[in-house]
Amino acid sequence: MSHNCKKCDQCKIDKLPCQPCIQERYQKEYENWSSGDKKLDKLIKFVRPSLVNTLPFLEWIPHEKIEDIRHLGKIGVCSTILMATWVDGYIVRWNHDEKKWHRRGRMTVILKTINHSDNISDDFLAGLEAYFKCASPHLTRYFGITQNPITYDYAIVMEYAENGDLRTYIQNNKDKLYWRRKLDILRNIIAGLEVIHVTGMTHRDLHIGNILQFKDLLYPSRISDFGLSKQAIGEGTVQVSDYIAPEVLNKKPYTNASDIYSFAMILWEVGTGEKPHANLSYNDELALQIKYDQRPEIPKEIPECYANLIKQCWDMDPEKRPTVLEIKEKIMRWQSVLGWFSTEESYRDYETRQFEKSDNEHPPLESQKPSTVDDYFELSNNTDDELTNETDDELSNDTDDELSSETDDGLSNNDGNHELPDGKEILYLALF
């Protein structure tokens, strides 16, 4: 049934993004469009509602709309990572007055180029289809596809994480991360992994470098590389890493429990602030350590309940590891009792008082300890100045002041604002 904008309350207000309107107009715009590649057309021409009620689609982004391209590095042998500026920015809503898309405007993006991809493979297509099924605010967003006119390599255009990956973020903020903040990071990660598992899939390459940090109060930590890790690493290759489950190293099938093992290593690194197995190189020695149930030592200052969760998640027997839902419920319970700052209840509860004790006896930086909601917000949104200055300058160039705070709301039914300077009580409800 065709969407009637004249009867739609959101379309009437015009400033509000309307999902049916976006879907219908987008597909109509690409109805007669073709890239010349049938596989690519399947990716570009349709909007695919995901199970978490978002409307993900991949635009065709002309390469001339990509400027200031800078090389960042390579992943494996098949993928190159670039930083660039997208001149137009992503679609926010349909402008009924001007009869055109209202877009975000100039923004920094990441290009993940799949080398030698002038012909799109079935695996590449399957990886992106997997992303569509799981698309949510907990996963790094893919905006579209572009093609280098010289090499003919295709690249995925995705959002840029202002605060880098989680390992970098922890190292830059190690002296400021109290347990409340650490648990908030972990809750975001496990919520994203839950979306992946609920849709019947596994990540298969979950590690701290694939968790990206954003200047976003609701979704600061997001899982990246889902659906593309197989192509980036190379067909049939198993990376020897401290985040790979022992059963996978033993050539057994990858399961949801294998992702849980990887999450255990994230728990360990977030809790300690250190890199696991730092004294070992990524080779056969490390693989043997993992296969024979050798795990990093858990420091005594780590809360006992948290240490127990780590041990459960990296259990040698995959069947004994908890599910994502069980882990999420445990973390959220800790958060709900701890609240924003110390209370009688947080000290009375057997488990949460372990976090209070750890922060009191081993404080990261006493002068930074949150004692009010405002202190917590200031700390949770802390970023590296060099990383944020560039992004702040871009945000100030938004073409529509009234829409400067609009983000992904045009593509989801999330009622929470990503910037809530005067509505912290709303965010509190969203978190807990």
Automatic annotation (TrEMBL):
Domain Protein kinase: start-end pairs: 66-338
Keyword Nucleotide-binding found: yes
Coiled coil: none
Lineage, opening ranks: Eukaryota, Fungi, Fungi incertae sedis, Mucoromycota, Glomeromycotina
Location of region: Disordered: 352-423
Record's protein name: Kinase-like domain-containing protein
Gene3D superfamilies named in the record: Transferase(Phosphotransferase) domain 1
Compositionally biased intervals (Basic and acidic residues): 352-364
Acidic residues biased stretches: 383-409
Entry-linked InterPro entries: Kinase-like_dom_sf, Prot_kinase_dom, Ser-Thr/Tyr_kinase_cat_dom, Ser/Thr_Kinases-Pseudokinases
GO MF, any single term: ATP binding
